[in-house]
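Technical note accompanying the year-one report. For the benefit of new consortium partners, we illustrate the data format agreed upon in the data management plan: each record pairs a sequence with a structure-token string. No post-processing was applied to the example shown here.
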Amino acid sequence: EAVKAGAGRETAHEVIKEHAVQVAKDMRTGKVRENDLLARLVEDVRLTLTAEDMQRLVEAGKANAGDAPQQVDAFCAHVAAIKKEFPHAAKYEPGVIL
């Protein structure tokens, strides 16, 4: 969509990567509490995407997710049952491999 809006393909890729990496770092260090990637992308003039464009893209992505949300819920329920049955295993921390 950014390319359709006039951004170069390489530029769009680099901008998205730059912001995605920075959001991950900021969340890891506690600089931000919530993922604000979409807001950062909207604010970046190199992409020329509006908040409405981003919302439309997110909704389209959700529509293409299929059964993934239900599969994640089922997996999490399965893990919760295992953790309940084996509480000591839930606290396991692996050692250094090499």
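Partners are asked to follow this layout when depositing records. The mean pLDDT is 91.
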